[in-house]
């Protein structure tokens, strides 16, 4: 065998190995494409019902939002009516009620027979507040009272 024949055999073997590797790669790529196609079909089968459910949920939410909007407008109307009613009641009964209360107070004072002159003045209450100090002028008077000989 000559060198050219050996080289030809080596090239043929190399091409045979290369073609077999390419064939294995193409077979695996075909399997991957089949699996991907099946996966996409399964996702499509599951996505269509989910989209239908989502669409019905959105419609239901829109209906509920319309109801809440209607309720909110009714509450706003009731609030404005209540405000108008309270203003009317206050203006209608407020002035006369104050006058009646003042008249009742005057009658009680007149029938009670007491005057501010007759009532003895009460001594002011002393309140102890924790954390407060006595002013310096009062402190000196206290110390002077305690040191009587």
Question: Would you kindly provide a written description of the structure presented here, covering whatever features stand out?
Answer:
This protein is an all-alpha fold and 149 residues long. The chain has helices spanning 3-112, 136-146. It has 2 helices and no strands.
Précis, in short:
81% of the residues lie in helices and 0% in strands. It has 149 residues and is mainly alpha-helical.
Gross morphology is elongated
Taking the alpha carbons of the first and last residues, their distance comes to: 146 Å
H/E series: HH
Provide mean pLDDT, rounded. 84
Main structural class: mainly alpha
Could you list the spans in which at least 5 consecutive residues all have pLDDT below 50?
Answer: none
Strand percentage, roughly? under 5%
Radius of gyration: 51 Å
Number of DSSP-assigned strands:
0
What layout of secondary structure does this protein have?
Blueprint: H1 3-112, H2 136-146
Keywords:
149 residues; mainly alpha; 2 helices; 0% strand
